[in-house]
Amino acid sequence: MAALKERIGIYPGTFDPITVGHLDIIRRALRVVDRLIIGVAQDTGKAPIFDMQMRSKLVEADIATFGADAKRVEVRQFSGLLVNFAEESGAKVVIRGLRAVSDFEYEFQMACMNSRLKHDIETVFLTASEDTHFISSRFVKQIARLGGDISTFVSPNVAKHLSEHFKGTNTWN
User: Fold this and answer.
1) Going from the N-terminus, what domains does the chain have, and what CATH number goes with each?
2) What is the pLDDT of residues 145-173, one digit of tens each?
3) CA distance 89 to 78
4) Catalytic residues
5) 37: which residues sit within 8 A by CB, 6+ positions away?
6) pTM of the model
């Protein structure tokens, strides 16, 4: 009998910043794959507030809280096509989180395009839990910028870095 190959998955994103919603998807993805690579994307289509190194460090710090499962997760930076990054990493599964129906159309098109580019890479969609489906990095940054409480949306470490980033820039007056 042939030995089973390790199932390697990639969960890509800008993670600017990583939220409890992302962490929920990561925990659940670990039920689907043996090893998970968190691909911190450069993504030129967005204007992240944190550079790639800081975003990667924040992800690594949050993953460190996973106990034994943290050993099954690797954080890597990438730019360029996701399917090329997946192929270079030995991953055959791309994990994507869906928060709402509005996410589905874009993610479905992306999955179809990725499949066309690399036939042997599958996309697995995980729906956000009912506790996290409303959380987005964009909203978290906006709330933090306006001085709101983000403690239920991100880890204390991320909240601290967001607070430091936006210190003195609150514009609600």
Assistant:
1) 8-133 (3.40.50.620)
2) 999 999 999 999 999 999 999 986 655 44
3) 11
4) 22, 46, 99, 137
5) 8, 9, 10, 11, 73, 74, 75, 76, 89, 91
6) 0.91
